[in-house]
Amino acid sequence: MPEFKTVALFVLTALAEILGCYLPYLWLREGKTIWLLLPAALSLSLFAWLLTLHPTASGRVYAAYGGVYIVMAIFWLWTVDGIKPTSWDLLGSAVALSGMAIIMFAPRGA
Questions:
Q1: How far apart are CA 102 and CA 106, in angstroms?
Q2: CB-based contacts of 14: which residues, under 8 Å, 6+ apart?
Q3: Predicted structure pTM score
Q4: pLDDT tens digits, one per residue of 12-53
């Protein structure tokens, strides 16, 4: 079950990061209220804190997290931006997720 916990934590982390970056985008590009910067800052703080919850080396966590981030960004493209991912988007996401799994779940020597 540690694999499920790791992936779930990465998914929450990615959502916090994407939301923390999307809210300033709405303010800067879409003319929304500047008050969006407050929840954006909170979301980015949550993102940083969530990354610290993994019980392995930070560099490994950051490298593996990138794979889940890619998948979540493509999911965001589809659900929030309303743009259906191409087969290349999906293939790239699968490759990135495979890389995450190799980095995080490969057997390690003591």
A1: 5
A2: 65, 68, 69, 71, 72, 73
A3: 0.88
A4: 999 999 999 999 999 999 999 999 999 999 999 999 999 999
To the nearest 10 degrees (0 to 180), the angle between helices 37-51 and 58-79 is 140
What is the phi/psi pair of residue 33, to 5°?
Answer: -65, 145
Query: Contact at 8 Å (CB) between 9 and 69?
Result: no
DSSP sequence for the chain:
-HHHHHHHHHHHHHHHHHHHHHHHHHHHHH---GGGHHHHHHHHHHHHHHHTT-SS-HHHHHHHHHHHHHHHHHHHHHHTS--PPPHHHHHHHHHHHHHHHHHHHS----
As a whole number of angstroms, the distance between CA 34 and CA 12 comes to: 25
The residues, ordered by sequence, that sit 6+ positions from 53 with a Cβ below 8 Å of its Cβ are 9
